[in-house]
Amino acid sequence: MEYDSLPKLRAETAPWPPDTAFRSQWKTFAGLNPHISPFCQLEWMELGIGIFGKGERILPFRFLDIDGNVHAMGLFRLVKEPGRLLSRTVLRTIEYNSQRINPFLTSNPNAMAAAIIALTETVGEPIDSFDFFKLDPLDGALQEVSALLSKHGVSHELREFNEQPYFPLDGSWVEYLSERTQGHRKRIRRYTRKLQEYYPDYRFSRYQKPTDFPQSDMTVVLDEIMWLFDKSWQADALEKREALDDMKRFYAGVAEEFLNNGMLDLCTLHCNGTLIAFELNLIGAGSVYMLFGAYDRDYADWSPGNAILSEILQDSYTKGYKRVEFGGEYLDYKRLWTKTSSPSYHLRVHGTTWKATVKRILSR
Predict the structure, then answer these.
(1) CA torsion, points 165, 256, 39, 130, in degrees to nearest 10?
(2) Phi, psi (rounded to 5 degrees) for 339
(3) Quick one: the chain helix, strand, coil %, rounded to 5?
(4) SS3 of 125, please?
(5) Coil, helix or strand at residue 331
(6) Is the pTM of this model over 0.85?
(7) Among 305, 261, 268, residue whose Cα is nearest residue 284
(8) Alpha carbon 202 to chain centroid distance?
(9) Which of 27, 114, 347, 352 gets the highest tally of CB atoms within 10 A of its CB?
(10) What is the pLDDT of residues 215-241, one digit of tens each?
(11) For residue 186, what are the contacts with CB-CB under 8 A and spacing of at least 6?
């Protein structure tokens, strides 16, 4: 195959669990890439693998040129997925509970396209498809990657996966309100004001470092938010799928891991002597990523979810953050706050097995 402008890369597997050298190199690449979110941090991915990736084969890769220089890195999983008639062998991204990701730790379209080609030529067993989910558009670089793959004859599809709303923190909170209609402004202000007026002990708290917690110990606050989550409608839905305990273990692990590296953002709202809402978020590259939250259904008439979101947005303006990412589920209440969103994508590179060929023909 001719690569023209693409670097000729080879994919080299690394041990799993990752050794110190791989961890150090991953951290360096993540730190240099402007498109790396918390979901590309090795710690996030390891937590997901440990809880949700039972029995899956994990494949860490470095992508090197002929001189041994590393141009990209990636972490993937090899899975068997059920099909209509036969199962399929799929190499796919590790995107448990993630929003938008960049699975190759490079923002260079040429390096990414070359890494994808190297990956498809290296895996030592038949693969029906290479599926990369929840991809960040990378400021247009992802479309360039798709064009480069097409140019080099790599059969693939690039499709929008979902829309992820976010709140751009441009200007100030006062300016944001001034751009709303009078009715909209009153509605937003009422979320916090009515609670403050009725409950004198109303309190919004934001924990981001160990010393923010009582006695520098997160345990009490973490136990309290998990107690509230158990009362939520989300917990009811997860319980039906027997997924509640795993989800709680995952986010407890996220809180403990990311508190130590300065990326945790845990927000709580109390009144009437009790916790009525919380949001467990992460901070990365000036953005707040909302991940895991709930409110007390006994206080639903007071709109505690919107009240705590209002507090988070106001405080985020004060702290100088760039945006608040609302996540992939476009719930109706988010439309009140923003109409701005970013797509995530699914890139599928077709394998060369007979099953992949038949599927590709039937999908035309």
Answers:
(1) -130
(2) -115, 10
(3) 40, 25, 30
(4) coil
(5) coil
(6) yes
(7) 261
(8) 31
(9) 114
(10) 999 999 999 999 999 999 999 999 999
(11) none
